[in-house]
UniProtKB/TrEMBL annotation:
It comes from Salipaludibacillus aurantiacus. CDD domains: A4_beta-galactosidase_middle_domain (cd03143). Coiled coil: none annotated. It comes from the Bacteria. Transmembrane segments: none annotated. Residues 2-244 form the Putative glutamine amidotransferase domain. PANTHER family: BLL2462 PROTEIN. This is Uncharacterized membrane protein.
Length: 250
């Protein structure tokens, strides 16, 4: 099995001020480590595209996408897929990769969107996935504004469908989370877990494929150490990959 994972990277440009003087430095970081280890633990092959490489390296054809059993977008805004350098810098026509993902799923692909500051709507609504083809294939409806629920006190989710295959092998209560994107359940979707009035984990079939929305983060900061080091962290994400790809979960 092979998946494509895009996002979960960032660059920090820091200004240090010391009295009259200042200087800057730049740091590059990734939040993919824990998920990548989960995939490695069961032999799932993963191709990783960091956020800054997405405009020019995310697939531009169905043939390319259909090499993968599932596609993940995590903490990366829609502009990174819509605005290739070819279009943004040279004003040339290029494929709409959100429409491409929709076609990929309708033909049998698996798709997962993971929450964060730049997925779903995100901070200041800069994720900008509402009213796109990606929202059509997801099992949720997005809010038309900044959809973050910050929870420094921690929140605990309610599992609605404990017998669903994505929860196979998982026992007991889930760890707390420090926030999530507020997502509304769709009538044609299955809500597997929720917090308050919002869907936390939800799924649906779209055409011949499947999609899953996970409202929080798979890495810090919304995903605290208690989650990313949880004994069932690997189990859950492996189950998710297999389910959206249409594989049996043993």
């Amino acid at each position: 099995m092979k998946i494509l994972f895009c996002g979960e990277s960032w660059v920090k440009h820091i200004i240090h001020t010391k009295g009259f003087d200042s200087f800057t430095n730049t740091e590059y970081e990734e939040g993919i480590h824990w998920f990548a280890e989960a995939m490695k633990s069961c032999g799932i092959e993963m191709e990783y595209i960091p956020g800054h490489l997405a405009p020019d390296h995310f697939p531009v054809s169905l043939d390319e996408l259909e090499q993968y059993d599932a596609v993940f977008l995590s903490d990366i805004g829609s502009n990174s897929l819509l605005l290739s350098n070819k279009t943004f810098s040279k004003s040339e026509l290029s494929v709409n990769r959100l429409d491409l993902i929709k076609e990929y799923v309708s033909r049998g692909g698996g798709f997962v969107m993971v929450g964060g500051y730049l997925t779903f709507q995100g901070i200041d609504a800069k994720g900008r996935y509402k009213d796109t083809a990606v929202e059509e294939i997801l099992p949720i409806t997005m809010l038309p504004y900044d959809d973050r629920h910050e929870a420094p006190e921690g929140i605990h989710i309610k599992i609605d469908k404990p017998d669903h295959p994505v929860f196979k092998g998982i026992q007991g209560d889930w760890p707390h989370f420090l926030g999530y994107n507020k997502l509304l359940s769709d009538a044609d979707a299955e809500t597997l877990a929720h917090h308050g009035d919002y869907a936390f984990i939800s799924t649906k079939a779209f055409g011949k494929g499947r999609s899953l929305a996970f409202a929080s983060d798979l890495a810090p900061h919304w995903g605290p150490p208690e989650f990313i080091n949880w004994q069932y962290y690997n189990t859950f994400w492996i189950n998710v990959v297999k389910w959206v790809a249409g594989e049996d979960i043993e």
